[in-house]
Design goal:
This protein is 70% helix and 0% strand. It contains 7 helices and no strands. The chain has 123 residues and is mainly α. It folds into 2 domains: 75 residues, Orthogonal Bundle (434 Repressor (Amino-terminal Domain)), CATH 1.10.260; 36 residues, no CATH class.
Length: 123
């Protein structure tokens, strides 16, 4: 599956790069790698680390899940999560929340309240 995903991610990377009219060299410079490394990513020869994936998504102005879209394993897990079959990592969420500044926490809580009221109305 890993090779399959590397090729999938490489195709998504190449499509986005070309859509923006960027060269492999320009993308490589932006994330501090060689253009050969971008070639290897695009061919699926090398996997992309989480840090590089974050850098690529920021530079190419796409959410990280852009790289997972249309990948069968991701879609299966997405369906399971929507059905409530996947566990939530509460420790991770707690850590993220604790790192928010007070203004971000207020906005997050308001968003959570809106989400809860929408769910209540739907049920």
């Amino acid at each position: 599956m890993e090779d399959n995903f590397n090729k999938h991610l490489g195709n998504k990377l190449k499509l986005r790069r070309l859509a923006l009219g960027l060269t492999q060299t320009k993308v490589a410079k932006a994330i501090n790698v060689t253009f050969q490394q971008i070639q290897k990513y695009e061919k699926g020869t090398n996997g992309v680390s989480s840090l590089r994936l974050l850098q690529l998504s920021n530079y190419l102005k796409v959410p990280i899940n852009y790289f997972f879209e249309d990948f069968s394993e991701y879609l299966v897990n997405l369906e399971k999560s929507q059905e409530g079959h996947m566990n939530v990592n509460y420790n991770f969420l707690t850590k993220l929340y604790s790192e928010l500044n007070p203004d971000q926490k207020i906005k997050f809580n308001k968003l959570l309240q809106l989400s809860n009221s929408s769910i209540s109305k739907a049920v």
